[in-house]
Design a protein that fits this description.
The chain is mainly α. The protein has 12 helices and no strands.
């Protein structure tokens, strides 16, 4: 039980500890508290990360998980900036360009939501493979997989570690799912690719007749763009979950996460 309390205190740093020095001193004394203390701390961290990533995947993969969250909502790709610039032009208002823009944005977010679940098994594998050394570094607020570490305490060090160790796997695993989702009929009876094509075709049809006065929309690798933005949004949500865990780990005992901690660390009796 003592180990569980130490784990909760360490994960919540620096909210509980007044300085990183105090935190490091606490960790350095762990061998005196028992040979299993450090492995148990990393088990606690892994449990926390499993819960945080599961929550993030569940949130982003549900309906409106991206579209209704302004922090991660996917907008049109940079090539479409010219469409935003000219959307109030009288030539385009008559074509219902505003409606087409919003339909396209909705469809891109639907594709991201449809693909988000693909990240779960990759996150789990990375968390399972985390070493004790890496885990303790993360608890201290450091990303051991970073080429250059910050001198301060990073409250999203675990998220940064996951990004460092999973990005090369996530991107190629995510891209086929995103591309498949872009071809699905996710908005009405149309796929995101069809809606994007309708928007750009309507715009370019007018731009092509403007004698060079209106710039057309160039080619876009929609799959690559949505893949990148979807992963950015997913890691953002994982980071927010990590911050919540560090700030108030004891709140877990009041939620469905409590039984997970109980299975890993034993009875909560005597708190």
């Amino acid at each position: 039980m003592r180990n569980l309390l130490v784990i909760l205190l360490l994960i919540s740093a620096p909210a509980v500890f007044t300085s990183c020095d105090q935190l490091l001193k606490t960790i350095s004394t762990l061998p005196e508290q028992g040979t299993t203390a450090k492995p148990d701390i990393v088990k606690g961290l892994k449990t926390a990360l499993m819960v945080g990533t599961d929550t993030s995947v569940a949130v982003t993969s549900k309906l409106n998980g991206y579209y209704k969250d302004e922090a991660i909502k996917i907008l049109l790709p940079p090539e479409a900036d010219i469409i935003y610039k000219n959307k109030d032009n009288a030539l385009f208002r008559a074509t219902g360009l505003d409606r087409k823009i919003e339909e396209a944005i909705l469809s891109l977010n639907r594709a991201a939501e449809d693909a988000a679940g693909q990240a779960a098994p990759i996150f789990k594998e990375a968390i399972r493979n985390m070493s004790i050394t890496d885990g303790l570094s993360i608890v201290k607020g450091k990303n051991p997989a970073a080429q250059a570490q910050s001198a301060g305490f990073d409250s999203t060090a675990a998220t940064a570690y996951l990004k460092s160790t999973t990005w090369s796997q996530l991107r190629p695993a995510f891209a086929p799912k995103v591309n498949a989702s872009l071809d699905k009929k996710l908005v009405g009876n149309y796929s995101p690719n069809q809606i994007w094509h309708s928007l750009t075709s309507a715009y370019n049809g007018i731009a092509d007749k403007s004698f060079g006065m209106i710039k057309p929309v160039g080619h876009t690798d929609l799959g690559a763009y949505v893949t990148e933005k979807a992963l950015d949004g997913l890691f953002y949500k994982v980071g927010r979950e990590e911050i919540k865990i560090r700030r108030d780990p004891l709140a877990w005992t009041k939620t469905s996460v409590g039984h997970i901690l109980e299975q890993v660390f034993g009875s909560h009796s005597g708190w």
